[in-house]
From TrEMBL:
This is Fluoride-specific ion channel FluC. Keywords: Cell inner membrane, Cell membrane, Ion channel, Ion transport, Membrane, Metal-binding, Sodium, Transmembrane, Transmembrane helix, Transport. It comes from Microcystis aeruginosa (strain NIES-843 / IAM M-2473). Na(+) binds at residues 82, 85. InterPro entries: FluC. Na(+) is not transported, but it plays an essential structural role and its presence is essential for fluoride channel function.
Length: 134
């Protein structure tokens, strides 16, 4: 199997390092700007932007819009996005709002993340198909 070759594994690992660090620093930046009670906004941003990035990469590869090395695709989609997006943290945060009795905010955050993620995913597909960036 080609995917067990060292360069593919290394590509995923390198992407994962940058994804995890990006997630960490975005969360800290949001917390420093808005305060700890608004820390979930970092997760929200990461999930939405992660949807856009993964849609862009998969679309340009799947539709042969641009040729990229398999290692680069794995680095970005599997490595970076896999460690960057934070669905488990998002689920935990939604649950926290619901357990605190803040049903309205919990449901807005839950639905906003899903709808925002789908919109970002569609934008990623459109950007890839239009050749952005040139």
């Amino acid at each position: 199997m080609n995917f067990f070759r060292g360069r593919y594994s290394l590509s995923v690992a390198i992407g994962a390092i940058f994804g995890a660090l990006s997630r960490f620093y975005i969360a800290k930046l949001v917390e420093s700007i808005f305060g700890q009670e608004w820390q979930f906004l970092g997760t929200f941003f990461v999930n939405i932007s992660g949807c856009l990035i993964i849609a862009y990469i998969f679309t340009i590869v799947r539709e042969n819009i641009r040729i990229i090395a398999p290692e680069l695709g794995l680095m970005i989609a599997t490595g970076f996005c896999g460690s960057y997006t934070t669905f488990s943290t998002y689920s935990l945060e939604v649950n926290k709002f619901l357990e605190q009795g803040n049903m309205t905010f919990g449901l807005i955050y839950w639905l906003g993340s899903v709808l925002g993620g789908m919109m970002a995913l569609k934008i990623g597909v459109i950007l890839a198909r239009t050749g952005f960036p040139r």
